[in-house]
Specification:
- There is one protein chain.
- The protein is mostly beta strands.
- The chain folds into two domains: about 120 residues, Immunoglobulin-like (Sandwich); about 100 residues, Immunoglobulin-like, CATH 2.60.40.
- It contains no helices and 21 strands.
- Strands 1, 2, 3, 5, 6, 7, 8, 10, 11 and 12 form a ten-stranded mixed beta sheet that branches. Strands 14, 16, 17, 18, 20 and 21 form a six-stranded mixed beta sheet that branches.
- A hairpin with a 4-residue loop joins β5 and β6.
- The chain is globular.
Amino acid sequence: MNEAPPHESQNHDARIWFSSHEVPPGPQEIAAVIVGSTPPGVFGLEAAVDRWDGTQWTPYGRLNLCTWVMPCTNAVVPLDSHERAPDEGVSPGEAIRFTTAGLNQGYYRISQTNPAGTASGVIRVVDGAVSPPPLPAVDRPTLAISPAVLAAPNDAFRITPVSAQGEVISLSDIGTARLERWSDGTWESGTEVTIAKSDGSAAHLSSPAALDDGTYRITIETADGDWEGLFAIDRTLGKS
């Protein structure tokens, strides 16, 4: 099973970006975002999982994905499992999460569909891979950021504070935040950034041009404690 599978863009309408495309064996929590030339509409939270056998993709299991406001991080279940995903949906740009717990080494394709098309991405479980950036805990307040992957550092995005109970609340003026980049298995020393005033509408980072591609943790300090969220910058999304 050493031969890598073909590039997914050749086979599907859109791709799924992962916070790490190669992870070590064991329960690794992964963020996923539908990106690229996506078909319109909302995608369901149930995803199909195929495993590469060296020559072709074969059905492996199902994955009930969790949105940022749901208190869960699910693993792949067998094809005949009776577990079903919630009757909710996710739009392109919104982050969802899952865990690789139970997956042996190999390549896995995760696919979501809607009436307009299919989005898919490939993740590899392999010894020696760097651990992915840790996701915010599901039992703590978090920041849901959309789109969670930016094609350029100055792209606009929305910040939605979500309580530990999954309730969406309002931060009338976010102001400043601490920004850290995941690199070689650790968060790099943070820097303070300014965020435009946001009431759930578009926001942006001030003077972000120097930010490299990668996954970032953004932390906002409040009287009730720290609020954390993740987003990424991937300039390849802006290329035709």
